[in-house]
Structures are given as C-alpha cells and as structure tokens.
C-alpha cells in the first residue's frame, strides 16, 4: 500500500510539473517561436497525411494549442479529392479515463466510417495515455488503424505494454533541440517479448520528404521468426496428442503451422489445464467458464497470443478476446445410450401381427365348425344317425338309464364281449368329422402340415378339405417368408435421435461448457429449453462413457469428439453398441481461433484461414484427424441362425411342456374324480367303462 501511494504521488507530481512546464512554455516563448513550432509541425503533419494515403476518412483529436494547425491547407493535403474528416478539440483540464459524451459519439462515427488515420496532437501526455487505454479497453476504434501522436515518455510506461503490442501502426513525432523531428514507432515484434521498445524510423527537417514505405510499413506481415506462445486445449479433432509421433496434431495445429509459415513466427505450444481454477476464476467473475479460466483466461492475462481448442462463436468470448473467421462448421449433438429391442423370445410370433394371429385362430374355429356342420347336414341327407351331433343340446331330452341296471352281472358280461355279439346295440358307424373336438384337432393339424388319418367318406368334406389345404399352404408360405426375413436382419435397436426423444427419455443431459447450457436455456424451442434446464456441467470425462452406457447422462459436443468418446469407451470395457450418436444436429456451430484482444495479427489470420479453406487444406486435415473415428454405420449382419435367435423355439417348447403337464394333471384329476367314481368302473376290468361310454356316450 505504501509503494502504491508513493507511485500515485509521483504520478501526480509528474503531471503537475508537465502542466507547469507546458504553461510556462506557452507563456515565455515569443510569438515567433510558437509560430515557428506550429509551422514546422503543420508541414510535418501535412506530409504525414499525404503519405498515409487516406482512402476513406481520417480523424483529428487535438487541444487548443494545436487547433490552429488544422486549416484548409492541411485538409487539402489528404489528396486531390476531399476526404471526410472528424475534428474534435479536447480541453486540457478534462479527464479522458471516461470520455465525455460528445467524444464517445465522435469515436462511434469514426469507427462506423472505418477511417484510415487518427491524428492525436495533445500536449498533455496524461490525456493521450488515458485516451489510448480507453480505446483499447472499449474497442471504440480499430487499433489496427494508423495513429499519429506526439512523443511523450508517459505513453511508454509499463501499463501501456498491451496497448502498443496491438496498436503497432502508431507513429510518434518528437521535436529535437535543433528543431528537427524524430519519427519513431513501436518495435514490432520486439514488443511481444514484454518490453516497450521504440524504433527510430527517420529524422525530418523542414522541406524534406517522408518515405511512406518506411513510416507506414506493415510490420505484421513478417514477424522475423519471433516466438509466439500458443495456448491449447486438447479436443478432437481440432487438437490432440499423437503418441506415435509425440506431437500435437489436428485441424487447428495445421492452421497454426500454416500461419507460422506465412507470417514467419515460431509457435510455442503449451497445454492449459482446464480443470484447475486459475487467476481468472479467483478474480470473482461469475459468468466464467472452464474455457475462460483456460484458453480465454490465458489470452486475457496476455500469457498467450493465440488460443486453440475447438472454440465456438459465443458472445461471451467476444468481450474478452478476438475471434478469427470460422475455419470449420461442426455438428453439435448428443451421445446417448442405446438399447436393443431384443425380442428373440418372440421370434416365432413376430412374422404375423396381432390382428393376423387373431384371424388365423378365428379361421381355425370357423373352418372346424363348418366341417362339423357339413358332416351333420350330410347325416340328415343320407338319413344316418344324428345322435352323436350336438350332444350338449340333447342331454336335457335324453332318458337317463337306471344306475341299478349297471350293477347286474348279465349287463357287465355283455359289455365285456367283443363288439357285435350279444343283445347290446352296436355303436353307430362314424366319420372323422362327426365329433366337434375332432374337427378342431384335425383342422389344426392340417394347418401344421400334418396329414389326416384318412380321407373323409363324404365328398363334400373331401372338397372342403382340398381347398382348406390350399389355404394352409399359402398361410405357411407367408409365415416362412416373414420368419426368414426376421432371422436375416439384426434386432432393432432403441435410439434417441431428436431433442424431443431426449426430453421424453428423461436422461440427464451434460456438457463441458456453461455457454452450451446457456444456449439451450435461451433457445426459442420448448424441447431445447427443457433440456437446458436439466443440463449439468461435466469437467471430468474419465468415466463419462460408462455413465452414458448406464443411461445416467447424455453428453453434448461435436460429432467427431463424440466418435472419439465412443471409440475410447470401447477400450474401457464399454460396448460400442451401447453408445449412440443422435442423428439430429442440434446446431451447426462455427469453429474459430482465439486471439488476444485487439490483436494486430487478426487481419492476416483471417485472410490466411480463408485461403486455407478455399484451397481444401482444412478439409484434408479434418479427414486425416477423423480417419480412425468410425461412423456409426454398421456392416450388414449375415443371415446366420444362432442360439440367441433360436431362443424363441425354446420358449415355444417350454410353453408346450407346461401345457402338456397341465393337461396331464387335468387328465389325472378327471380319471380319479370322474372315471373312478362312475358306477360301471371296475379297477380289475377298465374296458367295461370305455365300452359303456362308447355305447352310451351321454350317460
């Protein structure tokens, strides 16, 4: 605190001394001396204006002492045709840390007109310093414009380092003791080493010419092999570490190499640890992101000149750094879990729909009933016995036999005799379709390609049997064809391919940047806002693929990085088929490089990136980066019948076993509680009961 107070006192003392000296200089010199100074400076400024080759407009910000220099002859020095000009006089006593409203309006007009030249003739060096720092912080003017200023040692203080490192086209005019003027500029790229160095360009005397090729030379075209620190964050496919070559590779690495070759500088790469908070986070910025305390934070603190690592054009970045023109456009989507609709146990019922199966079962009952009716009508026409038909309807009208007669020995002896002997009636001669249960059973057997035990005796039944066989052949052929197609194709998978599907799935979305969450939260789409409200920020991606496979989250990033996560997840034991990249692109986001604020390299960087894109090099580097990241398309599965697909047969067999056991138990129960309880049943001669039921089925 004591050092800061002493520095503040020294600054105030220096300001007072400079103002006193300026006032004393203005009072003591004779009018001829002032006129000589103004005449020489005016001629020098006219020569500078001529050599600046103003194409659009220029601006003049001056004080009361130098206002007289800008007359008609000065403005005519801009060229044969008049150029628009903005002129503003600044009071020597006002502070420019927060410029007045009229000065801000002037600066806005100058920037909107994209003026080529800005002339600052302020005798008060503090005002010039304050104005330049305001221009740098607020971007009120293009810092790559040409600036002409009066030389003052206060302009080259340590806190002006970052201003002059970007305002490299500034020219300083300094009057010497012999009334000549020293013309100097910022030594670029030497200033990038952290020291403000002024380079002498020329010495001008009254009547001499100025070489514009020397004064306003483009110093950013050739950086003379200077080393530029490049901060990077690994993010496939833009930047990644190649273990085979032990070097960084990727699309943006190729772009930086091309920039280094074109601008003649040496890139000094260093990785940024984005998981640890840095000075930018500790400074108390509430809207920071992991990139701001990483890449963006490095540029804000002027630790790096270029930042690479798959940066997108978010508005929050523009407040702190400069973004290049987009070099690529990425599809941003979600990596979601994938589940298989494994219905192997239903394979044998899948060929037909539910309605089709209902129709088959209905046709089975209807055709069986038609067989039974035709057999009944045939018995009516041929005057045969109809006793066996519709027995359920005849029971009420039938006369029950006296159970006491069943116990007679003569009746039992007669039942035990062979058929046709004795006085008992002979069982009527019956056809295979005279019993309704037989009709249903034989109709079902024909549907399964099981031959009848014999052909029916009646021709109407034979004709119907033939046509029903044709129906069974067509039905079974259709079933076989559909079953073959099901077995030949892989099982259908359940995937999430739209934002609405993701919202309905209730899987928590995740991302690696706060800007992505804010993008969803501010979206006009209802589904996107719902996803953004539930989105969480994930910094550690070590177990991310396992979480996604378990359905605990869905990760949002560019498509190629999601491919990389899916491939790396396979090495960690996560099945590739368990991860699915959503087919719908949420947004196509431009990818840019980050440069420090008001960077002098931005115009050349934009031009070179545009040429690289037009030449197809960026597309080539992208193909090289993703060559080992396969897309999600799977090779067609061979039509092989494996045990997994044949699982439905075991299901059907199991159901058959269960039904058979149930039928066996029911038959055992019927034998014990119905057959054995009948008066005619004899455990030593069971045939008596069955002969009796054959002759008297209704008893």
UniProtKB/TrEMBL annotation:
Gene3D superfamilies: 1.10.287.70, Periplasmic binding protein-like II (3.40.190.10). This is Ionotropic glutamate receptor C-terminal domain-containing protein. One of its GO terms (cellular component) is plasma membrane. Keywords: Cell membrane, Glycoprotein, Membrane, Receptor, Signal, Transmembrane, Transmembrane helix. Residues 1-22 form the signal peptide. It comes from the Eukaryota. Belongs to the glutamate-gated ion channel (TC 1.A.10.1) family. One of its GO terms (molecular function) is ligand-gated monoatomic ion channel activity. Residues 356-656 form the Ionotropic glutamate receptor C-terminal domain. It comes from Drosophila navojoa (Fruit fly). GO terms for biological process: detection of chemical stimulus involved in sensory perception. It is found in: Cell membrane.
């Amino acid at each position: 605190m004591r050092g800061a107070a002493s520095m503040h006192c020294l600054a105030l003392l220096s300001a007072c001394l400079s103002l006193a000296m300026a006032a004393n200089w203005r009072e003591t010199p004779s009018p001829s001396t002032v006129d000589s100074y103004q005449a020489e400076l005016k001629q020098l400024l006219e020569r500078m204006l001529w050599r600046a080759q103003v194409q659009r407009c220029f601006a003049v910000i001056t004080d009361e002492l130098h206002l007289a220099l800008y007359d008609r002859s000065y403005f005519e020095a801009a060229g044969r045709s008049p150029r628009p000009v903005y002129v503003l006089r600044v009071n020597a006593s006002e502070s420019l840390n927060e410029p007045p409203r009229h000065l801000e309006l002037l600066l806005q007009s100058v920037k909107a007109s994209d003026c080529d030249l800005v002339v600052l003739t302020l005798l008060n060096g503090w005002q010039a310093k304050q104005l330049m720092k305001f221009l740098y912080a607020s971007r009120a003017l293009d810092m790559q414009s040409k600036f002409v200023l009066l030389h003052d040692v206060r302009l080259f203080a340590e806190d002006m380092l970052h201003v002059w490192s970007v305002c490299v086209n500034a020219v300083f005019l300094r009057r010497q003791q012999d009334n000549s003027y020293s013309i100097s500029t910022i030594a670029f790229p030497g200033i990038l080493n952290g020291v403000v160095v002024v380079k002498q360009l020329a010495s001008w005397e009254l009547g001499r010419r100025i070489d514009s090729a020397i004064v306003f030379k483009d110093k950013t075209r050739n950086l003379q092999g200077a080393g530029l620190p490049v901060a990077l964050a690994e993010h496939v496919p833009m930047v990644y570490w190649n273990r085979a070559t032990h070097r960084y590779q990727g699309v943006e690495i190729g772009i930086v190499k091309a920039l280094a070759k074109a601008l003649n500088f040496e890139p000094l790469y260093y990785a940024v640890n984005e998981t640890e908070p840095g000075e930018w986070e500790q400074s108390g910025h509430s809207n920071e992101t992991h990139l701001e305390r990483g890449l963006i934070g490095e540029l804000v603190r002027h630790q790096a000149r270029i930042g690479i690592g798959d940066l997108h054009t978010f508005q929050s970045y523009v407040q702190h750094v400069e973004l290049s023109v987009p070099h690529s456009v990425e599809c941003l989507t979600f990596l979601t879990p994938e589940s298989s609709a494994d219905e192997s146990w239903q394979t044998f019922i899948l060929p037909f729909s539910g309605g089709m199966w209902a129709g088959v079962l209905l046709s089975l009952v209807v055709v069986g009933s038609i067989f039974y009716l035709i057999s009944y009508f045939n018995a009516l026409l041929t005057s045969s016995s109809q006793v066996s038909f519709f027995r359920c309807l005849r029971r009420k009208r039938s006369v029950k036999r006296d159970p006491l007669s069943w116990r007679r020995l003569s009746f039992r002896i007669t039942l035990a005799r062979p058929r046709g002997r004795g006085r008992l009636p002979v069982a009527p001669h019956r056809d295979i379709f005279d019993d309704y249960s037989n009709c249903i059973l034989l109709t079902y057997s024909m549907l399964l390609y099981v031959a009848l035990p014999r052909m029916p005796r009646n021709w109407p039944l034979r004709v119907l049997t033939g046509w029903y066989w044709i129906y069974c052949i067509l039905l079974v052929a259709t079933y076989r064809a559909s079953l073959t197609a099901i077995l030949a194709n892989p099982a259908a998978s359940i995937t999430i391919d739209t934002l609405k599907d993701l919202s309905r799935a209730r899987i928590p979305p995740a991302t690696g940047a706060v800007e992505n969450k804010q993008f969803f939260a501010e979206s006009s789409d209802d589904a996107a806002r719902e996803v953004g409200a539930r989105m969480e920020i994930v910094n550690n991606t070590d177990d991310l693929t396992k979480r996604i496979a378990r359905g605990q989250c869905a990760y949002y990033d560019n498509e190629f990085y999601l491919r990389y996560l899916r491939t790396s997840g396979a090495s960690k034991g996560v099945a590739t088929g368990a991860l699915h990249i959503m087919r719908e692109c949420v947004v196509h986001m431009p990818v840019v490089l980050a440069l420090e604020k008001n960077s002098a390299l931005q115009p050349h960087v934009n031009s070179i990136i545009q040429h690289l894109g037009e030449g197809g090099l960026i597309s080539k580097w992208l193909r090289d980066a993703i060559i080992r990241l396969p897309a999600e398309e799977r090779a067609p599965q061979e039509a092989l019948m494996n045990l997994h697909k044949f699982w439905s047969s075991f299901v059907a067999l199991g159901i058959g076993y269960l039904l058979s056991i149930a039928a066996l138990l029911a038959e055992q129960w019927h034998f014990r509680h119905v057959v054995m309880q009948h008066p005619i049943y004899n455990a030593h001669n069971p045939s008596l009961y069955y002969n009796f039921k054959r002759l008297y089925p209704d008893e």
